[in-house]
Amino acid sequence: MATGRNHRPATRSRGIPEATVARLPLYLRALTALSERSVPTVSSEELAGAAGVNSAKLRKDFSYLGSYGTRGVGYDVEYLVYQISRELGLTQDWPVVIVGIGNLGAALANYGGFASRGFRVAALIDADPKMTGKQVAGIGVRHVDELESIVHTNGVSIGVITTPAGAAQQVCDRLVGAGVTSILNFSPTVLSVPEGVDVRKVDLSIELQILAFHEQRKAADELSRGLRGPERPAPAAGGTGGGAGGARRGEGPGPDGDIPAVMPA
Length: 265
Ligand SMILES: NC(=O)c1ccc[n+]([C@@H]2O[C@H](COP(=O)([O-])OP(=O)(O)OC[C@H]3O[C@@H](n4cnc5c(N)ncnc54)[C@H](O)[C@@H]3O)[C@@H](O)[C@H]2O)c1
Description:
Strand content: 5-15%
Bound molecules: nicotinamide-adenine-dinucleotide
Number of helices: 10
Helix content: 40-55%
CATH class of the largest domain: Alpha Beta
Radius of gyration: 21 Å
Structural class: alpha/beta
CATH architecture of the largest domain: 3-Layer(aba) Sandwich
CATH topology of the largest domain: Rossmann fold
Largest sheet: 7 strands, mixed
Number of strands: 9
């Protein structure tokens, strides 16, 4: 199996819009669930519902992959899993290092979902000498002094930062200096990187704040409906995400860059 280093994702060079790229993991998650249930084919409507995406958008997205489905039959689930995995570069092996093996770093190291998607945790790195040699998820923690040699030896192109905010930029600089070109940043800080390096940020507290905003709007809407009196018709049912600015609005990863990204479970 080829390793990830020196392979830029084909998606960009083939001109697939970033918004489509951001939805591909959602389709893949839904398709993988269907595949696990041995479902052979799926309609665009069913798949769109499972992925939480509008079906016209799904058909447009799949047209970029050259996948149009068969009228009356739908899409071949296994073939789409293969096609999307290939498009996302998941048919390659991507060695990943996690830097900062505290609560979060250890939890990520223990998460089985990376390996099944082609992301192999090549090393766990921490600055605390007391951590060196400790086994986390069956992997011995290495000292941060070894960061550069670990990156070189393993051909690592993706680094995950789970250090305190104050250490994140320095860790990022060292990863980039060693040749890492993609960073997944969990620390609550904005990282500066040179051109050609991609940063995705995950911040659950931001997601919660967005939910809080929508909750507040829903509460305000309910209050104003109450003030207008009971004779007003109730708004159309919208399920659990109904009301103004349902929480699904911001669902899914955004375009590439240093903005919040939510990892597919
Ligand atoms: N994005 C999110 O949703 C989210 C959720 C929880 C925590 N966090 C953030 O993740 C980070 C880690 O949180 P935690 O609870 O695991 O903290 P923690 O204190 O348990 O772990 C941090 C680890 O980083 C190590 N470290 C410190 N400086 C380092 C350096 N220069 N190089 C390598 N390792 C270094 C420490 O030794 C420690 O083991 C924090 O920045 C926290 O704010 C983000």
